[in-house]
Amino acid sequence: MGQQTGRTVFFVSDRTGISVETLGRGLLSQFEGMEFNQIALPFIDTEDKARAAVAQINAVAATGERPLVFSTQVRPELGAILKTCQGLYLDFFAAFMGALETELRQVSSHSIGLSHGLHDEQRYDTRIDAVNFALSCDDGIGIQSYAAADVIVVGVSRSGKTPTCLYLAMQYGVRAANYPLTEDDFEHQRLPAALSAHRARLVGLTITPERLQQIRQERRPNSPYAALAQCQYEARQLQTLLAREQIRSLDSTHMSIEEIAASIVHEMGLVRRR
Amino acid sequence: MGQQTGRTVFFVSDRTGISVETLGRGLLSQFEGMEFNQIALPFIDTEDKARAAVAQINAVAATGERPLVFSTQVRPELGAILKTCQGLYLDFFAAFMGALETELRQVSSHSIGLSHGLHDEQRYDTRIDAVNFALSCDDGIGIQSYAAADVIVVGVSRSGKTPTCLYLAMQYGVRAANYPLTEDDFEHQRLPAALSAHRARLVGLTITPERLQQIRQERRPNSPYAALAQCQYEARQLQTLLAREQIRSLDSTHMSIEEIAASIVHEMGLVRRR
């Protein structure tokens, strides 16, 4: 109780709460130096659960500062219950539903299932297929399938290629392969044969030697592989090779996986699959 | 031009646009029977890009119905430009920033980098480690690492275990292993030895035989593996085994990967890692 610092924030959703958490955190990050005690309340999809959420919010309100409550509630009867809480209630859906109903001249259906792609089997299957593709073309394997790839991510070991490809698959349904460039490729300063036929679909992930060293050090402490000189050599050689072969590249050093993936979709003009 | 049906919707963001797309689509899905022509405009982070976005929106407005524009703009000077567009401009950030500034008695910093976890290396590293964990404990391999798992997902082949574990890693930083239950386990109606020591961290993914058949049929058309009788047998045996061993379970049949993952975090009370 007494150890808890900062304002308490609730993220309430009728489904997973992933969007409301992301947007809410984005807003909170604009208040520098403030700390927030964050509590997720996903799957609030019945009146009983909504009343229990209100009780939990009010219990916090009773002990200190008014909690913040970010919400995405589709059903008005649940929104009406949540709105009675003693927190600052901010609903991303309610804020715009009225304006949309007016603009589209149609009353919204207020139905939970509709809003989150439930039963969208095609979307599910496309994403699973893309994940399987990424796994079957990870780290230089499966080059015989490269003709079916939407994009092929290249870079040095530990520059984030695998998670980027998996995220591309899961978020965008994009088929992404990845291939590690190694000293052998750098010595020849030439693309390996497996890649040269697919030049237009290649994207390079670059990274600073310092960050690369930090990541490798975590993985294999004090190995030659993690030595700064080695990381400097590989990072520099990669840059030279990408420039020489005119391969598009992204600096992944300060980006999250989501940002690297979204940048690739954007820069390469990839079409998301349904 | 003439082939395009429905209202055009723009998703504008200073960063990836993933949240604004998800929330915007959630809102639009409430308008049943309507079709929308969706255009993503991510990385609108300079005044020039904002003006180009306005021009693109206005070009659509000039040819037909007023477009809808969902936005998350942190910097007021960019928001001011975007707001001049001839679409219905709806900004998820602007809608609440004022209320938050009043409540928190602090002016927000209006800085793009802050809002999206840029430079959050610890979060990045945790997620990469969790992805590596999922890959090293996929499909029954890596059982010697199960002691380090936050959760172990069990189920029949093609019930969504691998993508679920990868999503748990990427979204929540959770270490998730997965283990396929097979006919051998069903015949004995007993957990395999590798799992029985970790009972409290097990969760079963169930699925209807019809949906399982549909997925397997895609993968290996007309194989014995995809036969309805086989899928019925496995689905029923799994249910019996999970009940007998008192393993928590989730029906994944009508859920997206995001929903399965969020449900597991919620039901198992998993702590997200930073």
Task: Describe the overall structure.
Two copies of one chain form a homodimer. Chain A has a four-stranded parallel beta sheet, sandwiched between helices. A four-stranded parallel beta sheet of chain A has the order 6-5-7-8, sandwiched between helices. The model of chain A has no long low-confidence stretch (mean pLDDT 92). The first copy, chain A, is elongated, with a radius of gyration of 24 Å. Chain A has eleven helices and eight strands. In chain A, 46% of the residues are buried. Chain A is 46% helix and 15% strand. With 274 residues, chain A is an alpha/beta fold. In chain A, helix 6 links the parallel strand 5 and strand 6. The longest helix of chain A is centred in the first third of the chain and has 17 residues. In chain A, helix 2 runs parallel beside helix 3. Chain A folds into two domains: 110 residues, Rossmann fold; 147 residues, Rossmann fold (3-Layer(aba) Sandwich).
